[in-house]
């Protein structure tokens, strides 16, 4: 028997094409009697084909299950047989009548329950059919693509035939076509796989010794862009209920397959609750992950945000920190107030420079504000004293009126003294002249009439 990995379907359902149905009357158990009954207008005689499905549950993968083809007695619609399969293994059942193979439908894989009897098989000895078959190319079967099914002619007995068994779907005869022989692939024929992509199926080899003489092998049909070989009646897994009545699909017998009618029937357990629960759980998990990601992003921005820096509205340069960063432009820099030298004085009347040639503070002109846009000139200014917080000291001044025009009239009463402020054409710090010294030290004199 070929060992090729495959995927058993959870629910693969056959069509309702014939007028009879069948079902298990009791749960299949290890080394126990199983009963099957047929209802409807079939064409006896009937037959049952059991095909092992899935791996062996025994230690070291010892395979003790045989393909069994069990005929009904005469026109009977009931069959009782001993199931020589170990517990926790599974099988697929196909019921046929006189109209053709698989006319009663194909079950989905049924699970064998445990029992106290284990005498029907030897757990240390594997079984094997008289011959085996192979396919070329060896990669598997592809929709609408040709494949060669071949075998060694010296191993077979009589006429060779092959059938396709689709769990929960259609079972059919594979046309053998023209046989040919070559050194590499023995004796065989080419078959265009007219089965829809995605279908799980078994190929069973037969000869004159009966069904399953050449063993069986599971395949999953690969998809292809070419669908020219497919028709509405092409074999496939059919939407509907699997044939076989109520039988366990779990090792504890808690889940059962449904009964059916021609080419399948019955019902199967629903997975709606599990699907809905999985969808709701997935959405909830996605929502939680989204909220967590948003929280982490917000936290990262809070603690690792961009570094703030002071804003200089006058000169916000984008360059790096340098010696002139955040300094005021030249136009806005404060200008010092130029205070004249208080020790300067005039040496000659009307002179504007001292003995060294420097301009006197009272006549300083044309002073320019350094580094000022447009070189605005400072207006001429004249000062005799420095600005300070001390109040100016008044000095007495005598006003003398000469009598060149004749004697003036005698003033009536006492003479009046008029005090005038000092002249501001000289600095107070300068050396006083002889006339100023004499005037400052002379007593007050009455104005002559």
Radius of gyration: 61 Å
What is the 3D form?
rod-shaped
Give the % helix. under 10%
**Mean pLDDT over the residues:** 74
Q: Summarize the main sheet.
A: 5 strands, mixed
Poorly predicted runs:
1-17, 263-271, 345-350, 361-387, 437-449
Per DSSP E runs of 2 or more residues, the count of β-strands stands at 20
Describe it for me?
The protein has 449 residues and is mainly beta. It has a domain at 20-269. 9% of the residues lie in helices and 21% in strands. The protein contains two helices and 20 strands. It has helices at residues 272-303, 434-441, and strands spanning 20-24, 33-40, 47-53, 68-71, 78-82, 90-97, 100-106, 110-111, 133-136, 146-151, 161-165, 171-174, 180-182, 186-192, 200-206, 216-220, 244-245, 247-248, 256-257, 260-261. Strands 1, 2, 5, 17 and 20 form a five-stranded mixed β-sheet that branches. Strands 3, 4, 6, 7 and 8 form a five-stranded antiparallel β-sheet that branches. It has a four-stranded antiparallel β-sheet with strand order 9-10-14-13, with no helix packed on it. A hairpin with a 5-residue loop joins strand 11 (161-165) and strand 12 (171-174). The radius of gyration is 61 Å and the shape is rod-shaped. Residues 1-17, 263-271, 345-350, 361-387 and 437-449 have low confidence and may be disordered.
